[in-house]
Design goal:
Oligomer: single chain
Number of helices: 10
Number of strands: 0
Largest sheet: none
Number of domains: 2
Helix content: 40-55%
Strand content: under 5%
Organism: Yoonia phaeophyticola
Radius of gyration: 21 Å
Protein name: Cytochrome b pre-mRNA-processing protein 3
């Protein structure tokens, strides 16, 4: 019998099968392997992607299905962008081609500037998350894991915010605040005087200085976050400005 007091009946451990299911190996057919370690990245960057074939052909391997999906998502980009997406897709799994980690690390070591300028932001986020498992230094792995938590929680929160009916650029009205206590005995956050944002974001900016592989990527993402007018941080800033003006 399930416990009505549990959000996840049976405990958090029951989520493991769902977590594992999405991490199964991307199988492939002959000729669908990753390129050799000495592949010319600049040549791939200059090679436009072909159009996505619709409807999707039958009998495709999991790798071919992933490539087909990426062709639709990355329309107008290059083969290097698609290779980056395929590498991340492999590295999110429990088992992946032996050469995938080294190829991913070489790509970021040699083509960081190009990747920062050309990858969609969602793929920059996916890239930094991938370093949490595959970074070569502890500083890179620890910082990448922190960025993973930051963006995952933002995604959950912003998904719930969609059900408020308000656009992401519109802050909540201070007078509508519900004063019910926060969960798990946490103290409330003060819109006017709270420093939680600084405690959350400033250490990420600081630690980027010591992360050799992802420091520039992390600061680039934090700058993008700062410039985005649709985040919880911007809404709190607007609420703070309104409260101070009153």
């Amino acid at each position: 019998m399930t416990d009505p007091n549990e959000t996840f009946p049976g405990g958090i451990g029951t989520l493991l099968p769902q977590y594992q299911k999405r991490r199964a190996l991307l199988t492939h057919k002959p000729g669908q392997e990753l390129p050799a370690m000495d592949v010319d990245f600049k040549a791939l960057a200059a090679m436009p992607l072909p159009p996505q074939e619709l409807p999707r052909p039958e009998g495709m391997s999991r790798v071919a299905k992933k490539r087909h999906m990426l062709l639709g998502e990355l329309e107008g980009h290059s083969e290097l962008t698609l290779l980056h997406g395929l590498l991340i897709s492999h590295l999110r799994k429990h088992t992946y081609p032996d050469e995938a980690p080294a190829l991913f690390l070489r790509l970021w070591a040699e083509e960081e500037e190009w990747l920062l300028e050309n990858l969609p932001t969602r793929w920059l986020i996916s890239a930094v998350i991938t370093f949490a498992q595959h970074g070569q230094t502890e500083d890179d792995r620890m910082l990448a894991q922190s960025m993973n938590i930051l963006f995952s929680l933002m995604k959950i929160y912003e998904a719930e915010r969609c059900f408020s009916g308000l656009p992401p650029q519109e802050p909540f009205r201070i007078k509508d605040r519900n004063k019910s206590p926060l969960p798990m005995g946490m103290k409330d956050f003060s819109v006017l005087k709270g420093d939680l944002e600084a405690h959350l974001l400033a250490p990420l900016w600081r630690d980027a200085k010591h992360a050799p592989a992802i420091g520039n990527l992390v600061r680039h993402l934090l700058n993008l976050l700062n410039a985005d007018d649709s985040t919880v941080f911007r809404r709190f800033a607007l609420m703070r400005e309104t409260a101070q003006n009153r």
